[in-house]
Amino acid sequence: MSKERKKTVSLSSLLKSLGNLRKGKKIVFTNGCFDILHAGHVRYLKKAKSLGDILVVGLNSDKSIKRIKGKDRPIVSEGERAEVLSGLESVDYVVLFSDDTPIKLIEKIKPNVLVKGSDGKKGKIVGEDFVKSMGGKTVRARLVQGKSTTNIIKKIERQHSRK
Q1: Which CATH superfamily is domain 11-161 in?
Q2: Which residues contact 117 (CB under 8 A, 6 or more apart)?
Q3: What pLDDT digit, counting tens, does each position of 29-42 carry?
Q4: Rounded CA gap, 130 and 136, in Å?
Q5: What is the domain partition of the chain in residue ranges?
Q6: What does the pLDDT look like over 4-28, one tens digit per residue?
Q7: How far apart are CA 9 and CA 16, in angstroms?
Q8: Environment class of residue 35 by beta-carbon count within 10 Å: exposed (0-12), middle (13-18) or buried (19+)?
Q9: Average pLDDT value for the chain
């Protein structure tokens, strides 16, 4: 039985691994909460992976999600969210972060490609200027219409309130 490489790693461990892999490999970075993983997430991560060789997912910690989305979130704990993401073939590394934005991670990881979901919002993507200044590119990946954790939660609440 072969030993499986651990995908959920600390930032320092990730940076060591990427140092060895960076030569000749295109590193892709994306981030998010990934609370209640659904088909939209899976398709988005496959698309992100298709843009390079190594996909690193910056995963918001429970504390940062509470600050961003409110006291009732996340639904699924950071450890479980990281475990589920690590089980996806498209994901090579998962690294937790506690800031409200992933800019510090992006500056340390120095990805060749920065991917963010396009939900119709315009404006700059956090880290876009930095990645472009290093010769990289930013990609807005189209999200699957109607597929979101918020929609799933609302559907559960509606069904529960009918009982």
Answers
A1: HUPs (3.40.50.620)
A2: 32, 44, 140, 141, 142, 143
A3: 999 999 888 888 99
A4: 9
A5: 11-161
A6: 579 999 999 999 999 988 888 999 9
A7: 11
A8: buried
A9: 88
